[in-house]
Amino acid sequence: MRDGKQLQRDSQQGKIAGVCAGIADYFGIETWLVRIATVAATLLLAGPFVPVFYIAAWFILDKKEPEPGLGSHRNASFAGKHSVKGWKSDEEDDDRKIEVKSKVWQAGEPPKQAFYDIKQRFVRIETRLRKVETYVTSSEFQLNREINKL
Q1: pTM, whole model, 2 decimals?
Q2: Is the pLDDT of residue 91 over 70?
Q3: Same domain as 119, residue 58
Q4: Which of 13, 108, 109, 137 is the most exposed place for a label (fewest CB within 10 A)?
């Protein structure tokens, strides 16, 4: 195992059964690269062995559990991923670690998209802080505090 990860099929990211997506997630590389390597190995090198191993992995590997509250971040479009959500999902999205890829084949977000995500997090945090500040400096807060003292 690598970094505490377990090799599992990722049917949400996968095209057929999620075997290539699971291998890509396990090794931290892009899914399209594993798919190309699988097709190339089938056509050029291993012939019928790769489809047999793929089908075997389909039945042997456990299915990856979907992460609650998080959409398909790797395959989501740049604009579609940043839609307006409820407050709870915003907090869950803020907890998500942003992995910036430095090479084309690595898994993660391109630097431009990662910058956009971080900027949006700070905007949401600043908005929440302004709401708290407004409430704390309001007369309603002072009145509630006086009532609670009684």
Answers
A1: 0.50
A2: no
A3: no
A4: 137
